[in-house]
């Protein structure tokens, strides 16, 4: 029998709600991955990704696999056995960076910070000074497991100061908060399509600086992965209309990415960032009016991924189950050290809109009241109203 999924509102850590026009793009006729028209589409995708990343990097493309493959592509192309990499960890995905380094046969020097806090720049500086022969500094710009953003520009500056590469995870950051690859001086940056781009999962946009390209082309050992070897992939994604076959690209998924990037370009990066911030402020106001607290300090908080502390005595899993069953709203659980302690509420891409803020808060009120959690009746909606009223009055 055919599969027909239920209709959900995706307000977890990803995937996010997909733009309707992106869903329609998936249904367009499939053409060959070396068709001249598809090559033209690839060139447009590259230009749109350069816009999204704010970069002129020639080596900018979508890896034909999810964000985890984008992460692996950056590490296996730039890091060789016996290299040393400074890895910053303040959540789950810094730990995955460590695993990539070690699987290559390199050494990871860990700079660890508490989950829910930003990466400590003084610690990074100290590690770089103590390990001057390290090849790279790797860190997560937007940590999906905690809802924290760290200072990417400052960390990339430290890497350049000590002659090291910078490897940056902005899977949850791209299109939701400022990502400025060239201004940061970042060497390798990867993201995902299923977060603030509101495309379907399955692709990982990456970009490499000219310096990173030189490092890749002058490696002493072959790239560990054949599929992710940028020396080979660029034969397919490189400039010009003559492309060398590397793999059969996911044609229709790339239609979808092109459509989502077109939506982003039409809205404008700054407008997208402002929309995510506004809806975050409204959600924050509603949650706090209910007596709920956010885990992350406001200065380090991701507007597109809100980590909410579970009140004492509340069955957090039951709340999530009720939201899914009764309201068809998905929110996320905590990961790792935060499992059972937080909810992760996403306002990413198409999901970042006023109607979702209101419906999510109302659903939480219903679920929490069933567990006898006390909150002022009507206060959350009034607080949300005030945020949007003030925004309208200043626009």
UniProtKB/TrEMBL annotation:
Stored PANTHER family: ALANINE--GLYOXYLATE AMINOTRANSFERASE, AMINOTRANSFERASE CLASS V
A GO BP annotation: glycine biosynthetic process, by transamination of glyoxylate
N6-(pyridoxal phosphate)lysine: residues carrying this PTM: 195
This protein's name: Alanine-glyoxylate aminotransferase
Keywords: Aminotransferase, Pyridoxal phosphate, Transferase
Source taxon at top rank: Bacteria
Molecular-function annotations in GO: alanine-glyoxylate transaminase activity; L-serine-pyruvate transaminase activity
Natural source organism: Arenicella xantha
Residues at which substrate binds: 344
Family per similarity comment: Belongs to the class-V pyridoxal-phosphate-dependent aminotransferase family.
Gene3D superfamilies cross-referenced by the UniProt entry: Aspartate Aminotransferase, domain 1, Type I PLP-dependent aspartate aminotransferase-like (Major domain)
Cofactor(s) needed: pyridoxal 5'-phosphate
Residue stretches making up the Aminotransferase class V domain: 30-335
Keyword Glycoprotein: no
């Amino acid at each position: 029998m055919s599969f027909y999924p239920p209709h959900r509102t995706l307000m977890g850590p990803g995937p996010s709600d997909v733009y309707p026009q992106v869903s329609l793009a998936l249904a367009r006729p499939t053409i060959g991955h070396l068709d001249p028209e598809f090559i033209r589409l690839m060139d447009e995708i590259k230009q749109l990704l350069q816009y999204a990343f704010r970069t002129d990097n020639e080596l900018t493309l979508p890896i034909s696999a999810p964000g985890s493959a984008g992460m692996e592509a950056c590490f296996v192309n730039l890091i060789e056995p016996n290299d040393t990499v400074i890895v910053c960890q303040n959540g789950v995905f810094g730990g995955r960076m460590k695993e990539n380094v070690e699987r290559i046969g390199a050494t990871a020097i860990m700079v660890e910070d508490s989950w829910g806090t930003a990466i400590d720049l003084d610690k990074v500086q100290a590690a770089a000074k103590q390990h001057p022969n390290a090849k790279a500094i790797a860190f997560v710009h937007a940590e999906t497991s905690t809802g924290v953003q760290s200072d990417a520009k400052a960390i990339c500056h430290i890497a350049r100061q000590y002659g090291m590469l910078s490897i940056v995870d902005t899977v949850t950051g791209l299109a939701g908060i400022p990502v400025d690859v060239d201004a940061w001086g970042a060497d390798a940056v990867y993201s995902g399509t299923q977060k603030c781009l509101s495309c379907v999962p399955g692709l990982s946009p990456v970009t490499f600086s000219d310096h990173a390209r030189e490092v890749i082309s002058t490696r002493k050992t072959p790239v560990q992965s054949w599929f992710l070897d940028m020396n080979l992939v660029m034969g397919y994604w490189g400039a010009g209309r003559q492309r060398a076959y590397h793999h059969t690209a996911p044609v229709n998924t790339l239609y979808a990415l092109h459509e989502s990037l077109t939506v982003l370009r039409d809205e404008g990066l700054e407008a997208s960032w402002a929309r995510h911030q506004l809806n975050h402020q409204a959600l924050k106001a509603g949650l706090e009016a209910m007596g709920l607290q956010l885990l992350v300090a406001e200065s380090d908080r991701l507007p597109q991924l809100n980590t909410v502390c579970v009140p004492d005595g509340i069955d957090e899993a039951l709340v999530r189950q009720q939201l899914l069953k009764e309201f068809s709203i998905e929110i996320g659980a905590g990961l790792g050290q935060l499992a059972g302690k937080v909810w992760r509420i996403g306002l990413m891409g198409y999901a970042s809109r006023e109607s979702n803020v209101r419906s999510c808060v109302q659903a939480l009120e219903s679920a929490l009241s069933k567990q006898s959690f006390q909150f002022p009746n009507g206060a959350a909606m009034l607080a949300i109203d005030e945020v949007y009223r003030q925004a309208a009055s200043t626009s």
